[in-house]
Amino acid sequence: MPWFYLILAGLLEVVWASFMKKSDGFTLLVPSIITLTTMAASFTLLTLAMRALPLGTAYTVWTGIGAIGTFTVGVVLFGEAVTPLRLIAAVLILSGIVLMKLASA
Questions:
Q1: Where is average pLDDT lowest: 30-34, 41-45, 62-66?
Q2: Extents of the domains making up the chain
């Protein structure tokens, strides 16, 4: 169950980061509410995952899912640039997540 909580927390991090962008600096009500609600849910699930997982593993995986997911949303939904260096960075982050998962098994 901790890994389920952690993955869901990471996915919610992608949601809140994306809606934070859409909130226009918290000036738009609905995106701001979605940001704050999913942020609270993400932190709550991260806290539950940390009951059973090492701090370093949980936090690294959580931020990694958020970073890769938010990068993907930025490219797909916000038309952000895909450059070779950005892709290499994403692959390195993903590699770190996989290695952290393997190291905690």
A1: 62-66
A2: 2-103
